[in-house]
Amino acid sequence: MAPRPRCVPPDTETLQQLEEEWRALPRLSIPAEAKACLKEADQFWHVMLTATDECGELLLKIMPRFALNVLSLPHSNAECERIFSKVNRIKTPLRNRLVVPTVLGCMLASQSVRRGGSCCTSFRPDVDLKSRYTARTIYGGEAAEAEEE
User: Fold this and answer.
1) CB atoms inside a 10 Å sphere around CB 102
2) In whole angstroms, what is the distance from residue 144 CA to residue 149 CA?
3) Across the strands, what pairs with 58?
4) pLDDT in tens, 51-64
5) Are 60 and 21 in contact (CB under 8 A)?
6) DSSP assignment of 36-89, as one string?
7) Contact between 8 and 16 (Cβ < 8 Å)
8) Residue environment code for 47-66, b if the CB has 16+ CB neighbours within 10 A, otherwise e
9) Which one is predicted more confidently, 41 or 134?
10) Where would one find coiled-coil regions in this protein (predicted)?
């Protein structure tokens, strides 16, 4: 059996119900709150997730969750590739012992400097920030213990 994405219902009964809800969608009386969100698909389906009829039953049981799952899928992996590229620029062969929190900190610092409109050459860390950079925070516990010996 071929693997399927997680957003596809696992059993045929649920898949059939999803198809029926899709076909019934044009005939439904859509609540005013959902009509106000027609231009934003995620907001529309979020409203439809809890929309009920006159009897208090959900208008759509499967379709809103399915639509939100589909909308959450990335349309490309370009952003992931950019992040991997940044990590590779930070974690060079000379700095291969950097631990994940340090790499994350470097990436966040880069974003913060760029967002602030300045560049890395004009940034001046204060004494408190400098005191936080120790072997333990940069390389992790093992490196700090080796340095102390």
Assistant:
1) 18
2) 9
3) 52
4) 988 888 999 999 99
5) yes
6) TTTT-HHHHHHHHHH-B-TTS-BS-SSHHHHHHHHHTS-S-SHHHHHHHHHHHH
7) no
8) bbbebeeeeeeebbebbbbb
9) 41
10) none
Burial of 9 (0-12, 13-18, 19+ CB in 10 A): middle
> Contact 71/41 with Cβ under 8 angstroms?
yes
Q: Structure pTM?
A: 0.51
Range among 31-40, 68-77, 115-124 rated most confident: 31-40
Could you tell me the pLDDT band of residue 3, with boundaries at 50, 70 and 90? Answer: low
Q: Residue 105 corresponds to which tokens in the numbers above?
A: 């900190």
Give the pair of three-digit tokens for residue 108: 């966040």
- Token digits of residue 56: 């208090």
Q: Model confidence over 20-47: pLDDT tens digits?
A: 999 998 998 888 888 898 889 999 999 9
Report yes or no: 48 and 60 within 8 Å, Cβ to Cβ. yes
